Amino acid sequence: MKRLILPKRMMWGVLLLACWLAAAQSLFAQSEFADSSRSLNPYTTTLKSALLPGWGQVNQERLWEGAVFYFGSLHFYYNAFFHLYHYNKGKARRHYHAFRWNLNAALFVHLVNVLDAADVSFRKRPTGWQGGLFSDKPLKSPRGAALRSAMVPGWGQVYTESYLKGLAFALTDLYLAFRAHQADINYRSTRETKYRDERSKFSWYLGAAYLLTVADAYASAYLYKFDQAMKLTVVPVVDLRFVGFHAQIKF
Questions:
Q1: DSSP character at residue 133
Q2: How far is CA 217 from its chain centroid?
Q3: In this structure, what are the phi and psi dihedrals at residue 189, rounded to the nearest 5 degrees?
Q4: Which of 84, 158, 196, 251 is surrounded by the fewest CB atoms within 10 Å?
Q5: 8 A C-beta contact, residue 52 and residue 37
Q6: Using one digit for the tens of pLDDT, what is the confidence trace for 16-65?
Q7: Each residue of 8-19: pLDDT tens digit?
Q8: Which class for 5: exposed (0-12), middle (13-18), buried (19 or more C-beta within 10 A)?
Q9: Residue 235: beta bridge partners?
């Protein structure tokens, strides 16, 4: 097996790439809000999920499915490279077997993610970010919510009045940041490899949790309208055969 040396800041490069793709998707969506009748191109959506797991699902407005595929594949890919790196250093067979297992798991999740995006695209023909949930004007600013959670994790959720969820995200991000910081302190004082690995692991988890916090705040701003914008209208109906009432729900 060839020796593979991983860049020290590879994980931050992956996270920055994910942020860039999310920003590009947001800008791409803004230009297509006007046409809510046209369904997404299934081939383009499938290609997006092939390039980045979860991207196609997010494009279909399936945010939680996208998050599961993205972070699931990211977890296995990271573990695969982690064990390959240690196998190259020490040639321990356990690292080689762990590398193969995690790589196979990552490829499996990646493939299921592509098939899932293709299946929904061809069967249901969703309008995605062009229509449906994200085509309506929300009562809370999605970008404002995302920016708040980007500055202070959980603030965007509080802004959309999801207080318990905001507290959960804030405590999770704070805990992961503390663990990464503590591992960094231990590594600098002892230079033990286990602390360096622990620092890398919790840094990955922190980056993933942070992105999920921001994405959830953005989506929560749209979902907030369902609590406030649904109106029940009762209209009297006069008919020669009966007199009654007609109830109409408006979104």
A1: G
A2: 11
A3: -90, -30
A4: 251
A5: no
A6: 555 555 554 444 444 334 344 567 888 988 998 999 898 888 888 887 88
A7: 445 555 555 555
A8: exposed
A9: 246
